[in-house]
Amino acid sequence: MLTVEKLESGYGESVILRDVSLKVQPGQVVCLMGRNGVGKTTLMKSIMGLLKARKGAVSYGDRELTRRAPGVRAKQGIGYVPQGREIFGQLTVYENLLLGLEAVAGKTPRDIPAEAIEKFPVLPSMYERRGGDLSGGQQQQLAFARALASRPEVLLLDEPTEGIQPSIVEDIRDVIRGIKAEGRTGVLLVEQSLEFVRSVADYFYVMEKGTIVAEGPISALSDEIVKKHITL
């Protein structure tokens, strides 16, 4: 189980997150929601170790990760698909996928696990293409598959449907549902689409001004909560 306890984090002298706590169980899809600028991406980066925690703790099971580097967290089983995808445009699709293997603890596999690419069957036909030549939706599929290559136990997805075509949104929906059905990997999802959230999530947290202001099973995501904390 991924556990965040009373986390405080930010940039420079600015404190963005204050006293943030949440949990993600194996096989559970947890959605983190809120208006733009409330700290959702900051929280994802803090969980991944890209931003240092000033207070609080991040752990997975009995593994304390709060002071660990991002690479160590990846080897401990946390995968990350950042907002904006951040694939390497000058590398081929295949080379981008191989980079995902760097997060595998112990001996690095020689090739990409089949389960990482079978969820996105179009990718093998693009192996020789440069990442920068792909469409936004194809880049998102690549970033997702790259994260899955390490067989993560927790997967952080930051706005995976942002700016991509509806057909690939459906593909991503199916992949998340499939991961949930397998019951091994927990997913922490940042997402703005209420329809998408309600179709995949089990539990939700809502952020406002860097703190958690509402949480509960997805059935409790009421119109009142949406109007007060999510919609503009």
TrEMBL record:
<dbReference type="InterPro" id="IPR052156">
    <property type="entry name" value="BCAA_Transport_ATP-bd_LivF"/>
</dbReference>
<comment type="similarity">
    <text>Belongs to the ABC transporter superfamily.</text>
</comment>
<keyword id="KW-0547">Nucleotide-binding</keyword>
<dbReference type="InterPro" id="IPR003593">
    <property type="entry name" value="AAA+_ATPase"/>
</dbReference>
<dbReference type="GO" id="GO:0016887">
    <property type="term" value="F:ATP hydrolysis activity"/>
</dbReference>
<dbReference type="GO" id="GO:0015807">
    <property type="term" value="P:L-amino acid transport"/>
</dbReference>
<protein>
    <submittedName>
        <fullName>Urea ABC transporter ATP-binding protein</fullName>
    </submittedName>
</protein>
<keyword id="KW-0813">Transport</keyword>
<dbReference type="GO" id="GO:0005524">
    <property type="term" value="F:ATP binding"/>
</dbReference>
<dbReference type="Pfam" id="PF00005">
    <property type="entry name" value="ABC_tran"/>
</dbReference>
<feature type="domain" description="ABC transporter">
    <location>
        <begin position="2"/>
        <end position="232"/>
    </location>
</feature>
<dbReference type="InterPro" id="IPR017780">
    <property type="entry name" value="ABC_transptr_urea_ATP-bd_UrtE"/>
</dbReference>
<dbReference type="InterPro" id="IPR003439">
    <property type="entry name" value="ABC_transporter-like_ATP-bd"/>
</dbReference>
<dbReference type="InterPro" id="IPR027417">
    <property type="entry name" value="P-loop_NTPase"/>
</dbReference>
<dbReference type="GO" id="GO:0015658">
    <property type="term" value="F:branched-chain amino acid transmembrane transporter activity"/>
</dbReference>
<keyword id="KW-0067">ATP-binding</keyword>
<keyword id="KW-0029">Amino-acid transport</keyword>
